[in-house]
């Protein structure tokens, strides 16, 4: 998926810099053209020669160094890149990027970049937990930087906790998720639902849930980037629809039901990432309900189960994917939804886990295939999760 892609790999000064050599080697092995930039401190941990030998390309270090490949390395390594990966990303580089500081080659070219930038932090456990570092990470996510979060385990200084650089395979999956464009979904119409439905109480109030729509929008964007025609049926969110998708805005579960059924005849793949309210108010007040008694009772009635309805009407050639948002008994509930709704694939997330479920940029999911196979994915950017789900859909459609 990344053959022929131009990957700029920034290596900063932490003990995990040695693991960047493995990353450079595996990216090169997959056909990417890898160009390494080392900060001055990274050079204290690994020699440039290691990366040059592994990638076949010269390593760049100084802002004012000349290059035999590029006339202006600080611009060309940014503008020619399909992706910039910074692994490991130290607290120092995160801080500089969060505040627009450009005082070396790496930070300068990241400012000049228009391609996706993937940051893979690695540092001491307490440093990673530090509020300043966490604020910088939040700010960088708001600016559109992508992250592969560090993993839990023993870090070099002997502490135990979150701070260890993510596994090479996890970083590569995230890279593939962000730039691994193939046209392997061309010819398919994929319907995705996203966001949390709103069930009105009166003209000013509603019942809803914590879904931001990020998971569904990531799926829609990923399917579109792989050549599919995408119909995105979305409950209200604050997100921009990904380029090229056909957006169908809806509010309530009943609106979503109607929109899904209207578009179902033309779809070959349906992915229901939306968080649909199971109940709605039996009566919606025509005017704003006044504050009168000490308590107020709302009578709720069941909404249609859209996915179960699709499962009952499933046609040959349609692949049906459901999600399960669970807070306990994940496996049991997942298997029940998979079979009960006649699905081909169920994506289960434990929404109580940090880094998973509602609102976050990452998710931690388990894939339950109708054939019995189960696959657990590590914490991953939602775009990377989306690509893995689409890979699974294609495997199922090929009979795998
Ligand atoms: O939007 P984000 O902030 O990115 O968060 C992502 C997410 C947590 C919303 C997403 O990962 C997720 O888990 N979506 C499904 C949430 C949910 O409603 O799960 P459920 O277990 O209640 O429903 C099971 C499945 O049936 C879902 O595919 C749901 O879309 C579908 N359903 C549920 C009820 C209903 N009345 N009709 C349905 O179609």
Molecular shape:
globular
Q: Assign the structural class, choosing from mainly alpha, mainly beta, alpha/beta, alpha+beta, or little secondary structure.
A: alpha/beta
Q: Summarize model confidence as the mean pLDDT.
A: 93
Between the first and last Cα atoms, what is the distance in angstroms? 19 Å
Radius of gyration: 23 Å
Key terms:
alpha/beta; about 400 residues; Rossmann fold; binds ligand PMT; 8-stranded mixed sheet; globular; single chain; 2 domains; 5-stranded parallel sheet; 14 helices
How is this structure best described in words?
The structure is a single chain. This protein has 400 residues and is α/β, with parallel strands linked by helices. Helix content is 33%, strand content 24%. The protein contains 14 helices and 21 strands. Helix 1 crosses helix 9 (168-179) and helix 10 crosses helix 14. The longest helix is centred in the last third of the chain and has 16 residues, at 382-397. Bound molecules: ligand PMT. Residues 211-215, 253, 272-276, 278, 303, 305-307, 322-325, 337, 349, 351, 357-359 line the site of ligand PMT.
Topology:
Layout: E1 6-11, H1 17-29, E2 33-38, H2 42-45, H3 48-55, H4 73-79, E3 83-89, H5 91-98, H6 105-111, E4 117-121, H7 125-129, H8 131-142, E5 146-147, E6 151-154, E7 160-164, H9 168-179, E8 189-194, E9 199-202, E10 205-207, H10 214-225, E11 229-234, E12 246-249, H11 253-263, E13 269-272, E14 279-281, E15 300-302, H12 306-312, E16 319-326, H13 330-340, E17 345-350, E18 362-363, E19 365-369, E20 374-376, E21 380-381, H14 382-397
Parallel strand pairs: 1-2, 1-3, 3-4, 4-5, 8-11, 8-13, 11-12, 13-16, 16-17
Antiparallel strand pairs: 6-7, 9-10, 14-15, 17-19, 18-21, 19-20
Helix pairs in contact: 1-3, 1-9, 4-6, 5-8, 9-14, 10-14
């Amino acid at each position: 998926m990344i053959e022929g892609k131009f990957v700029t790999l920034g290596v900063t000064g932490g003990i995990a810099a040695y693991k960047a050599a493995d990353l450079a080697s595996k990216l090169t092995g997959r056909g990417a053209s890898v160009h390494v930039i080392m900060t001055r401190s990274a050079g204290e941990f690994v020699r440039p020669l290691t990366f040059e030998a592994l990638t076949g390309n010269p390593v760049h270090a100084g802002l004012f160094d000349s290059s035999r490949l590029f006339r202006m390395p600080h611009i060309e390594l940014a503008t020619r890149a399909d992706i910039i990966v910074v692994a490991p990303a130290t607290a120092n580089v995160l801080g500089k990027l969060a505040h627009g500081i450009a005082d070396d080659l790496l930070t300068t070219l990241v400012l000049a970049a228009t391609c996706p930038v993937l940051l893979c932090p690695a540092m001491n456990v307490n440093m990673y937990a530090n509020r300043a570092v966490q604020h910088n990470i939040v700010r960088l996510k708001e600016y559109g930087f992508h992250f592969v979060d560090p993993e839990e385990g023993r870090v070099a200084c002997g502490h135990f906790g979150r701070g260890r650089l993510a596994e090479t395979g996890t970083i590569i999956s995230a890279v593939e998720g962000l730039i691994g464009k193939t046209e392997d979904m061309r010819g398919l119409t994929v319907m995705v639902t996203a966001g949390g439905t709103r069930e009105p109480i009166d003209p000013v109030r509603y019942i809803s849930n914590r879904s931001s729509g990020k998971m569904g929008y990531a799926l829609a964007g990923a399917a579109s980037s792989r050549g599919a025609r995408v119909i995105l049926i979305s409950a209200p969110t604050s997100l921009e629809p990904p380029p090229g998708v056909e957006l169908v805005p809806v509010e309530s579960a009943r609106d979503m039901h109607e929109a899904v059924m209207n578009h179902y005849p033309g779809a070959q793949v349906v992915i229901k990432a939306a968080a649909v309210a199971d109940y709605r108010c039996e009566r919606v007040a025509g005017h704003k309900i006044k504050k009168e008694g000490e308590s107020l009772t709302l009578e709720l009635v069941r909404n249609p189960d859209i996915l179960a309805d699709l499962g009952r009407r499933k046609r040959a050639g349609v692949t049906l994917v459901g999600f399960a948002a669970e807070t306990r008994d994940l496996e049991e509930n997942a298997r029940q939804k998979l079979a009960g709704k006649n699905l081909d694939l169920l994506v289960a997330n434990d929404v109580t886990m940090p880094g998973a479920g509602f609102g976050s940029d990452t998710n931690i999911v388990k894939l339950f295939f109708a054939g019995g196979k189960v696959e657990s994915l590590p914490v991953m950017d939602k775009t990377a999760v989306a690509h893995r789900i689409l890979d699974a859909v294609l495997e199922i459609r090929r009979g795998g």
